[in-house]
Structure formats: structure tokens, C-alpha cells
Amino acid sequence: MSSDPTVADAPGRPDVPGSAEDSPFRSERTARDEAPQFVLPLVVRIEKAAPPARTDALETAARAVLTILSDERALGDGEWAQAVRDWQDARIRKVVRRARGAEWRRAEALPGITVTGKSAEVRVFPPVPLDGWPKDLVKLQVSGTDLDDPEPPVDADPTAPMLWLNPDLDMSAGKTMAQAGHGAQLAWWELSDEERAAWRDAGFPLAVRTADPARWSGLTTSGLPLVRDAGFTEIAPGSCTVVADHPALRS
């Protein structure tokens, strides 16, 4: 349920990470690889008797990433701001772990933000060093659990922000949650301050859906932010995983 550093293709804003030549998502080795490496931890609550629906978990994870990026504690002189800057100055890594019962209660006691969907709960934490996870998070399992949708997801609002998944890839729920988070982050970076504020004030509405195979090729060449995975886990290097389709970015 982890996500390796990714390559990202996106039209660039010069004032945000990932938009210039020195992108944290580039596939080749850069100076970012020499910097201390950090990871953004996300923990999804999966109780045996009531696991969340897969699509809701994906959407909740994406909103959790947006929530911490926009939180005042992650900005300016906020208490998490330096950790977020250090994370964005190196490779962008996200790891999704799962918890239930007492594990979840211990995770909730740590500094972070819990984001709730229809059935999913995801807690996002400020970035930590790769080898510096809090003990109550490092012991949580990364793999071994997948999620299903009890019913097919309803058609999404075409005017809302969309994260389109590659229909040809088979990824675990955790891997896909991290990839959805990458896509949401790329969209966030590309928006103006006014567009970001409007999205935040609306509660970060978004939908995650698997693209129609006939549309996928066109989406990847549309100029919208595109996530490519480094391929260290589950899928081949360079695989296109997510296209971030926000109304403000559509040409």
C-alpha cells in the first residue's frame, strides 16, 4: 500500500514544486535524491466488520492530501511547514498503511488530520523521515489488504474535479490511494491561489474513476497533469497511473 517516487508530466507554475526542470517526480536521478528523504504517511481505517468501499477510500485519500497541503500548520511558519518543505524539496513519497481498533485509536492520538468520506476514514500526518516513522505508525501493515466496491460507483459529475485511473493497470487499494493522492497534489500545484481557495472552501469535491479504455490515450496527451510511477512496486517503471482533470485546468 505504498507509492514510490513518481514522474509527473504537467504544465508548470514556476512558484510550486514539480513544475520546473527540478521536479520531485522526474524519473532520472537529480539533486533531490541527494537531499534527506521524507514520506507522507496516510493511514486508512479498515475494521474487519465494516471495511470502507474502495472508491470512497481512494477519494478520501486524495482529499486528505489536499487537506494537509492547504492546512495553515503546513504553510508559512506553521508547525508542520518545515517538514512539508523538506518533503517537497526531495522526492515526493506517500505510504498508505492500514489500522483498526486500538491501532486506529493510537494513530488518531498522533498529530495529523482525519478526513472522512461516506464510509472511509483516512488520517494524514505531517511528513516524516524515511527511517523516522513514529512507533505507532511504523508497526502498521502496508500490504495484504484490498478493498472492493459493494456496488459500481455512480456516474461522476462531469463538471467536478476528476482523477482518472489507468484502465489497464491492476493496483492494490493502497497503491491506488497513494496514486490518487499524487494526482490531487499535481492538480493543486497547477491551480492559482484563487482556484485553490475556491476548491478548499468547497470541501475539495472530487471523484476517482477508472477511465474508459477508449478515452485513456486521449487523456494522457491532453496536457492535464499526469502521474507516471517509478515502478519499484506492483507496476512497470514509467506506467501512467492517474490523470488529474480539474475544471480550471481544462483547455
TrEMBL record:
Enzyme Commission (EC) number: 3.1.1.29
InterPro entries: Pep_tRNA_hydro_II_dom_sf, PTH2
EC primary class: hydrolase
Catalytic activity line of the entry: an N-acyl-L-alpha-aminoacyl-tRNA + H2O = an N-acyl-L-amino acid + a tRNA + H(+)
Keyword terms, alphabetized: Hydrolase
Keyword rRNA processing: no
A single MF term (Gene Ontology): peptidyl-tRNA hydrolase activity
Region of interest: Disordered: 1-33
Record field: compositional bias (Basic and acidic residues): 23-33
Gene3D superfamilies in alphabetical order: Bit1 (3.40.1490.10)
Name by which UniProt lists this protein: peptidyl-tRNA hydrolase
